[in-house]
């Protein structure tokens, strides 16, 4: 065998299992479809590498993979570090209620506690210091107070490095200045800097204040001998004597170079959409025919919902400071049994220009080209420019965000060779309506005018960055694809370790839980 372990994907599931297994002395290879990004390559201009195209990745292997399905679109990262590159740094342990049903008995909040701690320590999570709170956090606190819910307000732990000088001052009415960041080398040997409140967390932090996986787990994996091969898209996994052959296409100079590598053990960590799609393809190609018939089911959007509101009397600057910093929690189900929390939102300043540029770029793509086929420009317009259109007077906009426990009844499958999501909103509608009502109440309590997105009001169209499920944990292949330890039912030494194994909505941002499950899975895999 070429390696002891091949890990597919380098996000929360892949980076953590890859790191921990390499530290156990295993010879580890991490295959990642996206490229290695740094501050010199983060996309900024419309013509930069924004888009990952699943149909033509040899031409378009950019920052963001956007999948448009009927009623639900999914956005996810692509690159070494996976979703940590694009994410808003929220690192939250879910409430007990998220473990009440749907999980194998071995998985409880208590059994995961030490793994949650391990992830929190490695990602150095902490809330924004009191001397650096941006105006959106103050608005959240005021809104919670005004509706009598001050006790539900909380600041959230972020995987961000802040300047801890109590005299450090940020003037949010002045444009952010990169010079406010202090640079240093972290304990893993990676270059980082303190947060300068640039508001670019979702498009790559130019001062490396985000504690992304390429600054901690991945450097530790490499120190322990792991290899990382970027721009390697895995296409198939085939059982062979003593292990597996993993087929991959290397993406180079507008070409796909097919190859394969073998390992005793394979850990699929390509994310909810990526892992489910890969395993569905393996089954269709006849290489993994014993996979559970449950594959693709229990997919959840994690109840993501957004309502922008215009607050004429507040200068909120959603484009300054970390994307999200606080929440108002209804995770106790006190709102008629609906489990959700509200967050302040942020958006990079260039999104408006970017959407316009991106639309023009896709519209210019020749008819019948993969880009124009893959992206239904009309739907994309509905999703993105409707939001961007609200951005005039950006400083007065509050993007009210939320996540909640939806019905988790989406089904992923392959239709005519392409991934399809069967998303039925019926059983989740009361959750989204409760969130929309709470957004309205909070916005109006602070003098704001809610402007629900037309995609929602006209067509109940949603978009989520928090895809969960598809290869969910269960007690047998009758109700799951993997067991509590991430092992695929029906196969030895084949694992899934990422958001795909989470069998239900969590109601809070999921990366901490994905990380904790990955820590646990790696700890249960024997060193030999
Ligand atoms: C804009 C945005 C903001 C977010 N903010 C937050 C937040 O603040 N807090 C939070 O908890 N979560 C947040 N999320 C969600 C979070 O990023 C994901 O839940 C998390 O990254 C999922 O981890 P994962 O390991 O399951 O998959 P990922 O992190 O997505 O990693 C999967 C990796 O596999 C790679 N891959 C996929 N298919 C293949 C293949 N066939 N071959 C090789 N490689 C492959 C992908 O490129 C990717 O790097 C956000 C997401 C987005 C898009
Ligand atoms: S606010 Fe700016 S500096 Fe701070 S973490 Fe986000 S992108 Fe980096």
Describe the structure in brief.
This protein is of the alpha/beta class and 528 residues long. It is 25% helix and 22% strand. It has helices at residues 12-23, 83-86, 109-122, 135-146, 217-223, 271-284, 351-364, 370-374, 377-388, 429-445, 454-459, 511-524, and strands spanning 3-8, 28-31, 64-69, 72-77, 153-155, 183-185, 191-193, 227-229, 232-240, 243-252, 255-268, 305-310, 326-335, 338-344, 397-404, 411-415, 418-422, 449-450, 462-464, 494-496.
Give an account of the 3D structure.
- This protein has 528 residues and is of the alpha/beta class.
- It is 25% helix and 22% strand.
- It has twelve helices and 20 strands.
- Strand 10 (243-252) and strand 11 (255-268) form a beta hairpin.
- Helix 1 (12-23) runs parallel beside helix 5 (217-223), helix 1 runs parallel beside helix 12 (511-524) and helix 7 packs antiparallel against helix 9 (377-388).
- The longest helix has 17 residues, at 429-445.
- The model has no long low-confidence stretch (mean pLDDT 93).
């Amino acid at each position: 065998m070429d390696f002891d372990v091949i890990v597919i994907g380098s996000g929360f599931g892949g980076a953590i299992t890859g790191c921990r297994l390499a530290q156990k002395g295993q010879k580890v290879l991490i295959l990642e479809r996206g490229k290695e990004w740094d501050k010199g390559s983060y996309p900024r201009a419309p013509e930069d590498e924004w888009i990952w195209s699943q149909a033509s990745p040899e031409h378009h292997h950019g920052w963001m993979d956007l999948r448009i399905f009927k009623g639900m679109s999914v956005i996810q990262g692509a690159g070494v570090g996976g979703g940590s590159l694009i994410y808003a740094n929220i690192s939250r342990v879910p409430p007990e209620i998220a473990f009440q049903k749907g999980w194998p008995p071995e998985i409880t909040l208590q059994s995961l506690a030490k793994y949650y701690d391990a992830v929190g320590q490695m990602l150095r999570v902490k809330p924004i210091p009191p001397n650096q709170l941006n105006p959106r956090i103050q608005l959240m606190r005021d809104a919670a107070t005004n509706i009598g819910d001050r006790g539900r307000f909380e600041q959230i732990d972020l995987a961000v490095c802040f300047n801890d000088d109590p005299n450090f001052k940020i003037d949010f009415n002045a444009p952010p200045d990169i010079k406010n960041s202090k640079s240093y080398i972290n304990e893993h040997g990676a270059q980082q800097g303190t947060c300068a409140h640039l508001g670019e967390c979702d498009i790559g932090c130019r001062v490396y204040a985000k504690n992304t996986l390429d600054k901690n787990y991945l450097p530790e994996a490499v120190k322990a001998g792991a290899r990382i091969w970027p721009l390697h898209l895995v296409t198939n996994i085939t059982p062979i004597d003593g292990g597996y052959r993993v087929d991959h296409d290397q993406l180079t100079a507008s070409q796909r170079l097919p190859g394969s590598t073998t390992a005793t053990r394979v850990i699929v960590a390509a994310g909810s959409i990526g892992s489910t799609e890969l395993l569905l393809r393996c089954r269709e190609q006849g290489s993994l025919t014993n996979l559970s018939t449950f594959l693709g089911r229990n997919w959840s959007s994690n109840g993501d919902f957004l309502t922008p509101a215009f607050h004429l009397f507040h200068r909120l600057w959603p484009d300054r400071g970390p994307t999200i910093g606080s929440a108002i929690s209804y995770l106790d189900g006190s709102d008629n049994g609906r489990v959700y929390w509200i967050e302040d939102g942020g958006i990079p300043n260039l999104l408006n220009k970017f959407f316009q540029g991106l639309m023009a770029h896709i519209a210019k793509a020749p008819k019948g080209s993969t880009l124009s086929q893959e992206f239904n420009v009309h739907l994309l317009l509905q999703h993105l420019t409707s939001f961007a259109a609200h951005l005039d007077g950006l400083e007065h906009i509050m993007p009210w965000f939320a996540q909640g426990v939806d019905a988790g009844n989406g089904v992923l499958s392959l239709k005519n060779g392409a991934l399809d999501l069967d998303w039925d909103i019926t059983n989740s509608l009361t959750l989204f309506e409760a969130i929309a009502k709470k957004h309205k109440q909070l916005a109006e309590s602070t003098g704001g005018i809610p402007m629900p997105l037309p995609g929602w009001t006209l067509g109940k169209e949603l978009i989520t960055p928090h895809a969960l499920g598809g290869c969910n944990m269960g007690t047998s292949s009758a109700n799951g694809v993997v067991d509590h330890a991430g092992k695929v039912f029906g196969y030895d030494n084949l694992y899934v370790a990422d958001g795909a194994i989470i069998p239900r909505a969590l109601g809070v941002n999921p990366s901490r839980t994905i990380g904790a499950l990955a820590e646990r899975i790696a700890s249960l895999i024997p060193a030999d």
